[in-house]
Structures are given as C-alpha cells and as structure tokens.
Design goal:
The chain is mostly helical. It is built from 15 helices and 2 strands. The chain is globular.
C-alpha cells in the first residue's frame, strides 16, 4: 500500500476509534466503571490494555501530555477500576455509540471487521507498545465491537510509529505539540490546554524550536513546515505495511467512508487529534 492510501485509511479508521473519547456512552461507561473525571477516564480506558502500569509508562507511550496531568490520574485509576474491569466495558460502550450514531454499522462491521483484523495480525508490533497491547486482546464476538477494536489497534499502530519519528527528530512531546499548532494542524490554545501545559511552558518550547530554526515569531518557518511534512509522510509510510495483506484495500476504504463520516459527528472540528473533516472524493 502506498503512503497516500495509508493516510486515507487513517481518516476512516480514526473516527471509528475516537467515539471512545467523545461519545456520551463511553464517558458514562468510564464513570460507571469507577474512573473519576474525564482525564482519569481517558488515561485509564486508553491505557488499560497495558495493564496497571505506572504514570511514567503512560507518559512515554501517550506522548505529549504534561506529566502532572497524567499523574493526577495514574496510578490512582487502577485502584478505582482495575484494567480488567475497564476492558470489559470500553469496547461495549464504543459499540453502543457506533450503533446509535450510524444505524448501518452492523452491515459495515460484518464485512470490514474481519479484514481490519487481518491487517492487525499482519502488523509488526516491534517497538509499538500500545499497538501490541491492543492486538493481544481477544477479538470480541460482537462484530461492531470487533470493528472498534481493530480500528483502535490500527490507530495505535500508526500513533506508535508517529511517536518514534518525533523522538528520532529530537522533539519532546511538548515541542511536537507546539510545532503541530504552528503549522496549522490544530489551535495552539486548545492543544496546550488539552495536553495540560502552562503558557510559560508552551512559550519556552516555542523558544527552543526557534533556536533550531523551526519557528520564527510563533510561526513555522519553511524548515519547520518541511520537518512536519516529512514526519507526516514517514508516519504514513510506517502505517502502510499492515494493509498490504489485504486484497482491494481501496474498496475497504470506500466501504468505511459512510460510517466514518457519521461517527465523525461525535467529535469537534478542529480537534486535538488533528483529524480533518472527511470528504468524499
């Protein structure tokens, strides 16, 4: 699969996964499982496949969040709701949200979930902790829940590769956020607040990027834009191999578009994920 098609697949896979962050069903499920507040729900639900790990493990794998934001939620989360309890409810809640938001999801899931799981099984898990942890979970019997789980594993595969590239370029999680906002991916204020950084920390990171010639007066320089574009291109290339096992991946992409467009209505635009609105070509 070429890099462009890998990026197209991300644009349809991400909305399937992201209901877990934005839908009322998933927020309520986290609360009922025992998690306290949105961020404990976020870190606990997304991190549960890793087990009852330390705050440091969440900081490293999630990348870009202020350590204090993580540490207010982890490891306390595991005392309120053990990972096994969270795993028992998170996929089921996501499937309920998907059914509500897109009534045709049953037919899509029946056809697409097995194909996406083929890609999951074909992917290389080396150096990809979040992906490998999600791949190691049992495949649900419910086809809609299975679709969500496959989408989740593949988006974490992409995300793990993206983090590796950021680290290779010498960017901290905070600096990666600042650069993303400077090239217009998402509002800097929203990204800063959602990741828990102070204005002073944000400005200091912008200063460090300026010293590298990546920013000037808060705007991305040509060098900064080129670096960000290279990281995105390489992220697409690293995300592509799992789909190579599939026959006609273009057809799979097209089959997922209607569901992805409907489920995207569950999330705001712009959003901290940096996902653009999906439009039919």
């Amino acid at each position: 699969m070429d890099a462009k098609l890998a990026r197209d697949m991300w644009k349809v896979v991400e909305p399937l996964h992201a209901v877990t962050y934005f839908s009322e069903e998933c927020r309520t499920a986290n609360k009922e499982a025992g998690l306290k507040g949105y961020w404990m729900g976020y870190f606990g639900s997304r991190g549960a496949p890793l087990g009852a790990v330390s705050a440091g493990a969440i900081e490293a794998t999630f990348f870009g969040f202020h350590p204090a934001r993580v540490r207010r939620a982890v490891p306390d989360a595991w005392g309120f709701a053990p990972p096994e309890r969270i795993l028992a409810v998170r996929g089921e809640a996501a499937a309920r949200a998907m059914r509500r938001a897109f009534p045709g999801i049953e037919d899509v899931a029946a056809a697409a979930a097995p194909r996406l799981h083929e890609a999951v099984l074909a992917a290389d898990g080396g150096g990809r902790a979040l992906f490998a942890a999600n791949r190691g979970l049992p495949v649900p019997d419910d086809p809609v829940e299975a679709l969500w789980q496959a989408a989740t594993a593949l988006r974490e595969h992409r995300g793990d590769g993206h983090v590796a590239l950021l680290v290779a370029e010498g960017l901290s999680g905070l600096e990666a956020n600042v650069l993303a906002s400077a090239v217009g991916t998402v509002s800097g204020e929203w990204l800063r607040e959602s990741r828990g950084w102070s204005p002073e920390e944000w400005d200091a990171a912008a200063g460090a990027l300026a010293e590298r010639g990546l920013l000037a007066d808060g705007e991305a320089t040509e060098e900064g834009k080129a670096l960000r574009a290279r990281i995105e291109r390489l992220t697409d290339e690293l995300a592509a191999p799992p789909y190579d096992v599939l026959d006609a991946p273009e057809a799979l992409h097209e089959a997922l578009v209607p569901a992805a467009m409907a489920l995207a209505n569950e999330m705001p635009f712009p959003n901290p994920i940096g996902l653009p609105r999906l439009r039919r070509s």
